[in-house]
Design a protein that fits this description.
Order of helices and strands: EHEEEEEEEHHHHHEEHHH
Low-confidence stretches: none
Strand content: 15-25%
Structural class: alpha+beta
Largest sheet: 6 strands, antiparallel
Radius of gyration: 24 Å
Helix content: 40-55%
Number of strands: 10
Mean pLDDT: 89
Distance between the termini: 63 Å
């Protein structure tokens, strides 16, 4: 067992505090599926005066559908609303599976104990084994820089003023980030509000950024179709790099697996072998970025804007194909199939139009 710690000492001094406690275990060999239940009992050590309810806790963490072949697993539980300080925590765990009726087959897992300190709530909430704090904004920032550089180069190929394109791109980046946040909130109304860099949807970014390029390009006197064609490879590069940040930050994680192609990673709560769907999406975006860059560089389309539509449709199709591999429930029953069909038809249509052109 281990405590979540702040990467820098000054973060541990910030308030409010919470506890992040990780229990590691090797899944026992049992019929599947089975669940693991961990009972955590905590007692604060540096208490002055009479003890209060904020100096003790008992919480139960449950992990359903554990696979015995998934390898070493880390289950992280957060405890909020308790006094900051040093804590002694013990963990008692068991694995159980229904064996018919109300009977359950139970296997006790090794107990564990540790002494550690509470930390800043944002750190306790965001950090876990396999999660690198700050990786997502760092990689997204790198992706934005690379995207702007590529867009600037392709803008010159399409005869666009680089300075004007850069100005529109910077505005589109800021407004796109706001659009990503708003889109996520509108599609997740039942969830609590999240920190600034958590709870963003790439769909919202693309919608708002594209609208900004169309309006901003027209205001700046740029050929909007050619601007969009120079932009789609940049968007794909940014997405490819940003998805690497998702893997390191524990977001958009794949489903647990026992496959040899699995990669140990975390969704900030459970660290286990998972399908590396973030890497798969990054690879798809990078491949499309290469293809669209070559086309934009060597063969500027006579039908300006066609490359943007085709490139975006290709990415939407690849993204929807990968969605079932993510460990997130779908919000609609038929939305994915409808989106896939429309994206595929759009891609075929743009390819046909390109051949005609």
């Amino acid at each position: 067992m281990e405590f979540v710690k702040a990467p820098f000492p000054f973060m541990g001094e910030l308030r409010p505090h919470a506890l992040g406690i990780t229990y590691w275990f090797d899944p026992p060999t049992m019929p599947v599926p089975y669940e693991v239940v961990v009972r955590l009992t905590g007692r604060r050590l540096d208490v002055e005066g009479a003890r209060t309810p904020s100096d003790d806790f008992v919480v139960v963490a449950t992990l359903a559908e554990v696979r015995p072949t998934s390898g070493r697993t880390a289950l992280t539980q957060r405890v909020v609303g308790k006094a900051p300080g040093r804590w002694h925590v013990t963990a008692d765990a068991l694995a159980r599976v229904s064996s018919g009726g109300d009977r359950k087959e139970v296997v006790r897992l090794p107990s564990a104990e540790a002494v550690g300190a509470s930390t800043f709530t944002a750190v306790a909430t965001m950090r876990a084994p396999g999660v690198l704090l700050g990786a997502w904004p760092a990689m997204v920032g790198l992706g934005v820089v690379m995207a702007i550089i590529l867009q600037s180069v392709l803008a010159r190929v399409h005869g666009l003023a680089s300075g004007k394109v850069l100005g529109v791109a910077l505005v589109a980046s800021v407004l796109g980030a706001l659009g990503a946040k708003v889109y996520y909130r509108l599609t997740h109304l039942k969830e609590r509000a999240r920190p600034v860099f958590s709870g963003l949807s790439v769909q919202g970014f693309v919608i708002v950024a594209t609208a900004t390029f169309v309006v901003g390009g027209a205001v700046q006197g740029l050929a909007v179709g050619h601007l969009l064609d120079a932009t789609v490879p940049a968007l794909l590069v940014g997405q490819a790099v940003g998805r690497l940040g998702c893997l390191l930050a524990g977001c958009c994680a794949g489903v647990p697996t026992s496959s040899r192609w699995g990669l140990w990673s975390s969704d900030r709560r459970v660290g286990t072998r998972r399908l590396p769907v973030q890497l798969m999406e990054a690879a798809a975006a990078a491949s499309l970025a290469v293809v669209t860059t070559v086309i934009a560089w060597r063969v500027p389309p006579s039908w300006a804007g066609l490359l943007f539509i085709g490139g975006l449709a290709g990415y939407v199709l690849a993204r929807q194909l990968l969605f079932p591999l993510r460990g997130l429930p779908r919000s609609t029953r038929h939305g994915r199939h409808v989106t896939m069909t429309l994206a595929a038809l759009t891609l075929v249509g743009t390819l046909g139009a390109a051949l005609v052109a």
